[in-house]
């Protein structure tokens, strides 16, 4: 008798009588007791991504250049900021859906950033997503910050789109066109509240994203986005427009790549009353715009660096006009699961004010975090 | 982006193209060209080569990645989702080799049947006996390891045959009219590869027990088949670059155990290997990582044959 079977019989002798598995016909196939790992096999992928930053503010960022989240503290004094832990739960629900949930824990509290189900089996190139999700507006708005090469969001996004991310509960239908290149049209209906103090309002979003192959090593993505948000009274709207470009060059056999990308945002209010303003007082209907462009070179698996230039409408205590920022970033990736980044920028405010700002960032990822779209 | 257009467009194989031209010339009098029954997409070129062997002219095959690329790090370019959209069969390696890029493409593709477990999805690892399964606790302090086992099994021709047989079986399910053709293609491939294996084993037999280094743990299955022995990897842990102290240890190991060869796939940098080679007199042998890894490596037999040849030459 097998030694293992002897041990099993000795143990089993303490409780019921040991039954020999060996029969005249031979052993029956199968695993005794079933699969002990079955519960684990049905667990969703669980991951956590932690982000921490050391901040240097050389000119009063919160006062003169707001809409940066809660990243910046006292002028001239380095501070450390726990940004967030993003908890991810991802799994296939059934043969028809998969689900992705991302919760953010930050000093501001806990929030479900995204929680949506995606269909897997619709015909004709169609796909539906329902739940709470980042709006399909532009490229960067749909990315979680740990995917960015730079360490903070461009100014224009915070000024024109949303304080953090344009997002909300709703449904999005997307159609992959039967073309030889990648052409995807997304139409979303969501309730969004882009800035704190705003109530959720119905927002329609449309995005056309196309990718073209330029060579074996190069491809370019072009996106066009538009959105219209109700502004609380009949005929009052906030219209948003966006253009995004992503050019990537990566020799086939190399880990190195060059990514050049940028986005242009447009915003226009229509018959929107000023919150707390005099009766009949309306927000300016003058179109506003801002943009950012960056080039990032990942020289190998471990090091990457880039430059970024941005323009956005000034806000806060700054004089009205265009705010400009030029910055550089150096990223070090000890592995696929951690990053140390250093970003320094010079911000030029209308009227000649502004100054230096710098971020020293560390992030880690643990667990099984689903791969990100391109 | 860097995925090749390896697809022979449906109905546009060279013979079919002549047929089409003839049809035009004869004012639609000629019969329509034969069309491939199935459009097979694979994640790596080795699997594409096997699919071509057993699929013959009933399939049009393309690979999402190139043989010159590190298959762990392919860009999840949406252009690849377009290739997956109309795939009649997706063959992937599995064991999390493609975990960093394939899942979002499959979701983007809108092709319900190529989802994991779908009838148009074949994960090649399900057809082979997997090695290097971690037996104790696993965490990332051990590097970017594959917790389900080593996915680099296509350099073992026995396992290549196992995968080819699984592809033939799945093609037969998807295209019952071609079942006998797939089985006969498989039998012919098995005969050719078995003959070639005899020659390769003859070449490797005198080298049994000889020790080599590799860059990454990509050679487990080749060693299992060839009888060569690993004395270690240049990476101290999977995906972790070797610090000088580790290379110094390898120099000692090489001297003690008589390691004369360092095998490096050509998508890896050879700097670390050359450091060890300079101090030990070992040879750095660059090999293609897959079919298509060098221009002359067009078939699965080309690939295994060239790896055998380079490894054997390096040890002589």
**Fraction in helix of chain A:** under 10%
* Form type of chain A: globular
SS-derived structural category of chain B: alpha/beta
Instruction: Characterize the biggest β-sheet of chain B.
Output: 4 strands, parallel
Strand order of the largest sheet of chain B: 2-1-3-4
Proportion of beta-strand residues of chain A: over 45%
Total helical segments of chain B: 10
Mean pLDDT score of chain B, rounded? 89
Order of helices and strands of chain A: HHEHEEEEHEEEEEEEEEEE
Order of strands across the widest beta sheet of chain A?
Answer: 1-2-3-4-5-6-7-8-9-10-11-12-13-14-15-16
Order of helices and strands of chain B: HEHEHEHEHHEHEHEHEH
Instruction: Please report the total strand number of chain B as a whole number.
Output: 8
What's the multimeric state? heterodimer
Class derived from helix and strand content of chain A? mainly beta
Short structural description:
The complex is a heterodimer of chains A (374) and B (316). Chain A is mainly beta. Chain A is 7% helix and 52% strand.
Would you kindly provide a written description of the structure presented here, covering whatever features stand out?
The complex is a heterodimer of chains A (374) and B (316). Chain A has a 16-stranded antiparallel β-barrel. Chain A is mainly beta and 374 residues long. In chain A, a hairpin with a 2-residue loop joins strand 3 and strand 4. The N terminus of chain A is likely disordered. With 316 residues, chain B is an alpha/beta fold. The longest helix of chain B has 26 residues. The N terminus of chain B is likely disordered. The chains are: A mainly beta (374), B alpha/beta (316).
């Amino acid at each position: 008798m097998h030694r293992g079977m002897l041990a099993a019989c000795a143990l089993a002798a303490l409780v019921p009588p040991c039954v020999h598995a060996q029969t005249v016909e031979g052993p029956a196939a199968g695993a005794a007791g079933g699969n002990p790992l079955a519960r684990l096999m049905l667990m969703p992928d669980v991951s956590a991504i932690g982000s921490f930053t050391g901040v240097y503010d050389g000119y009063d960022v919160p006062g003169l250049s707001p809409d940066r989240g809660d990243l910046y503290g006292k002028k001239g004094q380095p501070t450390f900021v726990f940004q967030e832990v993003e908890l991810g739960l991802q799994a296939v629900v059934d043969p028809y859906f998969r689900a992705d949930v991302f919760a953010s824990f930050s000093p501001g509290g806990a929030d479900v950033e995204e929680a949506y189900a995606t269909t897997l089996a619709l015909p004709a190139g169609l796909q539906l997503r329902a739940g709470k999700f980042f709006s399909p507006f532009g490229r960067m708005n749909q990315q979680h910050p740990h995917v960015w090469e730079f360490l903070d969001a461009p100014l224009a996004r915070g000024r024109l789109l949303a304080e953090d991310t344009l997002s909300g509960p709703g449904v999005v239908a997307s159609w992959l066109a039967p073309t030889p290149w990648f052409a995807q049209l997304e139409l979303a209906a969501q309730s969004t509240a882009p800035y704190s103090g705003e109530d959720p309002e119905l927002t329609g979003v449309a995005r056309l994203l196309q990718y073209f192959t330029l060579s074996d090593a190069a491809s370019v993505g072009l996106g066009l986005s538009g959105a219209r948000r109700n502004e609380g009274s009949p005929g009052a709207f906030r219209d948003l427009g966006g253009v995004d470009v992503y050019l990537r060059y990566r020799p086939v056999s190399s880990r190195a790549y060059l990514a050049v990308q940028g986005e242009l945002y447009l915003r226009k209010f229509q018959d929107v009353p000023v919150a707390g303003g005099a009766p009949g007082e309306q927000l300016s209907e003058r179109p506003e715009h801002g943009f950012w462009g960056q080039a990032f070179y990942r020289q190998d698996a471990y090091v990457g660096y880039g430059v970024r230039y941005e323009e956005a409408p000034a806000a806060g205590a700054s004089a009205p006009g265009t705010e400009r920022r030029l910055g550089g970033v150096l990223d070090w990736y000890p592995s696929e699961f951690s990053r140390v980044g250093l970003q320094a920028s010079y911000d030029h405010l209308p009227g000649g004010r502004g100054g230096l700002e710098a971020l020293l960032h560390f992030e880690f990822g643990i667990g099984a975090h689903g791969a990100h779209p391109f | 982006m860097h995925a090749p257009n390896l697809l022979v467009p449906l109905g546009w194989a060279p013979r079919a193209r002549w047929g089409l031209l003839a049809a035009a010339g004869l004012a639609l009098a000629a019969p329509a060209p034969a069309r491939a029954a199935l459009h097979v997409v694979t994640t790596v070129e080795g699997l594409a080569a096997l699919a071509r062997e057993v699929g013959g002219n009933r399939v049009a095959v393309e690979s999402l990645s190139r043989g010159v690329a590190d298959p762990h790090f392919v860009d999840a370019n949406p252009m690849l989702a377009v290739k997956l959209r109309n795939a009649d069969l997706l063959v992937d390696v599995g064991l999390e080799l493609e975990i960093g890029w394939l899942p979002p493409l499959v979701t983007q593709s809108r092709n319900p049947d190529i989802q994991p477990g779908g009838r148009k999805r074949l994960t090649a690892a399900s057809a082979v006996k997997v090695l290097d399964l971690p037996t104790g606790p696993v965490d990332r302090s051990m590097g970017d390891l594959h917790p389900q086992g080593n996915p680099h099994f296509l350099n073992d021709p026995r396992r290549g045959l196992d995968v080819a047989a699984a592809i033939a079986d799945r093609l037969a399910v998807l295209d019952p009219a071609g079942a006998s053709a797939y089985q006969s293609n498989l039998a012919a491939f098995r005969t050719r590869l078995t003959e070639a294996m005899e020659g390769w084993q003859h070449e490797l037999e005198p080298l049994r027990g000889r020790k080599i280094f590799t860059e990454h743990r990509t050679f487990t299955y080749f060693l299992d088949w060839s009888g060569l022995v690993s004395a270690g990897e240049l990476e101290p842990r999977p995906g972790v670059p070797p610090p000088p102290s580790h290379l110094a240890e390898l120099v000692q190991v090489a001297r003690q155990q008589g390691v004369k060869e360092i095998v490096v796939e050509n998508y890896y940098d050879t700097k670390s290997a050359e450091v060890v080679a300079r101090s030990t007199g070992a040879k750095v042998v660059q090999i293609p990582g897959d079919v298509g890894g060098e221009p002359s490596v067009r078939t699965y037999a080309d690939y295994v044959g060239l790896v055998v040849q380079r490894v054997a030459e390096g040890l002589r």
